[in-house]
Structures are given as C-alpha cells and as structure tokens.
Amino acid sequence: MTQPLLIGDPRVRAVPLLDSGDPLVGLDWIDGPARGAARQVRDGLARRLLAAQRSLPRGLRLSLVEGLRPATSQASIVDRYTATLAAEHPSLGARQLAELSTRYVAPLDVAPHVAGAAVDVTLVDRRGRELDMGCALDATPEESAGACYLDAPGLPEHARANRSTLAAALAGAGLVNYPTEWWHWSYGDRYWALVTGAPHAFYGPSDLAAAA
Known about the structure:
- It is built from eight helices and six strands, in the order H-E-E-H-E-H-H-E-H-H-E-E-H-H.
- It has helices at residues 10-13, 43-55, 71-88, 94-101, 141-144, 157-172, 190-196, 207-211; strands at residues 24-26, 40-42, 61-66, 118-124, 176-177, 184-186.
C-alpha cells in the first residue's frame, strides 16, 4: 500500500480557492443517521450524490453519517485526536503530531466537511442494514489497525467488494476519496482539486458551517 497524499500536505493548502457561492442544500432523500445541519452539503455535491445513488446496484442505497460539520466541532476533533496521539507517541514533536493527525482529521483551514464539500457515507441494503465494509465507519488507524484505509490489505473479500461498489458509484459521479478513510468522499474542495488537477477549489470553509 503506497503512502497516501495527506490533506495537511502543503500542496493541498497551496491550491487556490475561488468559492462558487453554491448554497447549502438538504439531503432529505438519503438514508442514514445524520441529523440537522449534518444533512446539508453544497448543491453541486448534492447533485452528484444523487447521481451516485442512482448508479448503485438494485437494492443498495447510500447512508449518510455526516455532511456539513461546524468549525467548532472540527477543531474539537483535531484537538482530541492530536492529544491521543501525543499520549501514544511522547517522543514526537508538535509538527510530527499535526501531520500524523491528518490521517484521520483535516486541519480547519482545508477541512472539506466545514466547507459543505464532503460526506461520510456507507451502503445499506433494501432493509436499511449496513453492509460490512471491513471496519467501523470513523474508526481511527489505531483502532482499526489500518483497515480504515480504502485499499487496506487483508480485508475479507466481501468487504472489499462492498468498498469497491461504494467507490465506483461515488468516483463515477465525480467525488474523490480520502484514502485513509474509506467512508470520506468530497467534491469541490482543495483536496479534490489537487487530486483531479482542477485549477482551483470552489468550495471553502463556509460561514454557515462556522455558525452551525
């Protein structure tokens, strides 16, 4: 498994941002536990998620765990996870800890969830039962022994097939995956722009997210 491009990479931060002004819209049609503001994303992402839903094999549906995330929540996740890493790796300096933490959570200035540009999703069957994806959604690299990576080795074949089905639908609709998290997909943010070769991002951290 190759070393993935992490979202804290200076090349991601260097991507220009020209926010399109696309509004946040509700994902009322999608299954899943997300509630309130977490069911909102930018309009361009919402349309692509609907296209991904329609491309799935019969009997399968997307399930939304989180879309938009308040800036305060993002900052809190960064602080908690970095503190956990510091306790586990006392020899690491602040810069190394910050880099390590980006395997699981994005720095606030480039966080796609805060921009309304990302979703955490999985698949459910016609009865609403979650498919086995090989590890729990939101498991850290430490908790999952690396199984959270999209292309993690050693996964059961059925879990790998389920991930491939999810990936085919979302990538086919124009989203990109954050490779350390099989569930995290984005569109229009700086990470997406760098991966796809777009000249700039058009979704940045949203004022609405800061107030959510």
